[in-house]
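Honest question from a wet-lab person: if I give you the sequences of every part of a complex, can you actually get the arrangement of the whole thing, not just the pieces? Trying it with mine:
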Amino acid sequence: QQPVQSPQAVILREGEDAVINCSSSKALYSVHWYRQKHGEAPVFLMILLKGGEQKGHDKISASFNEKKQQSSLYLTASQLSYSGTYFCGTEIRGSNYKLTFGKGTLLTVNP
Amino acid sequence: GAGVSQSPRYKVTKRGQDVALRCDPISGHVSLYWYRQALGQGPEFLTYFNYEAQQDKSGLPNDRFSAERPEGSISTLTIQRTEQRDSAMYRCASSLRRYTSTDTQYFGPGTRLTVL
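Yes, you can. This is the full assembly:
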């Protein structure tokens, strides 16, 4: 039931864009995105609750395709501060409000 | 305001010893979650509480692991007769309301447990 994230890792130059995908084999109720820097706790980015919902957060946005059971995180005009590991946490319908996290996508932004 | 705090931050113990890990959630937060995070992996759910009631403990690996939150605030995760495979980062998170779907989980700094 663990969601599958892709790619596993991506390297960007400052100013470039990236997309991180999160797919589930089960019907999703919500998707939560977090970013974790090395040696630190995961930090909340956004929650997506409805199929088709898109949210934005500075130059980071996300979409949720309930039918395809997947979510995508979009990072535009990346900054050095965007570097870190991105995790999606998925709540499956009937899971008693538990989050299951993917293995993460390591994003490195270079000058 | 203060975030989620955990203690100790680092714990080294010998195999067979019991350990107690403490989590102090954000004041007023109803829900409290325990996760285990291996290096290079996402957090793995262990258990969670709404107030003092343990809602789900399906993620606890075996009966050596237990958790409590007696007064609906501070929580303790106890591992009895520790084994080397228990070595990991143990993280706590809290959220204001009861239902994950609509609420943010705020993670603590974690306790790095090493079992020798």
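Two things worth pointing out. DSSP finds no helices and eleven strands in chain A. The mean pLDDT of chain A is 91.
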